[in-house]
Amino acid sequence: MEEFILIIISLILGFWQGLRKRNKKNNIKTEEYKVKIATLEDEIKTLNRKLRLQQYNNGSLKKKNKERFETDLTSFITMSMDNYYLCASVYCLLNIVFRTNTKMDRTYYEQEFNVEQISIDIENYLDESELNETNIDLIVEYQKGIKKIINPYDAFACYKEWINSFNIDIYSISLKELMETMYFILYELNLNE
């Protein structure tokens, strides 16, 4: 009888250990699947961004998005002279940072505007230019030939203020389109006439 009870107990223990091992394996697989799902979600986001870039490279997003962006940006700039100065400073800083990065990567201008990435690019530019002692003051042309020298660090502060004031995150626009739009508004639009 004791042997029978020991056999039953050993079977139950064996079954329980088997369940523990299986649960451990299942938990490991679950973690692996979570990692795979996160990776796939990142890939989907990347593909969506690429698709949107292709769409406004072939013109299908421009009417829907760029015109609205242009109108809202025009309203923002012309709302006050302070906004005009702010955008002019931001334009000059972005222009030099974008041109610097385009020398290293020809596709840079075709990328979509991303607030966080551009902030990193500006910081990298400022760090490298300070390290190499190539940092230069920017000449900002505000209006009707009025020019002002502005320090890149001040322009970066303007960029942060601009991001907080004008919500660019809601637009899908390439860096090239952004610069073309800002150039048109800041340098072709005559506010006094």
UniProtKB/TrEMBL annotation:
Domain of life: Bacteria
Keywords: Coiled coil
Coiled coil residues, start to end: 30-57
Keyword Coiled coil attributed: yes
Protein name as annotated: Uncharacterized protein
Species, as recorded: Thomasclavelia ramosa
Lineage: Bacteria, Bacillati, Bacillota, Erysipelotrichia, Erysipelotrichales
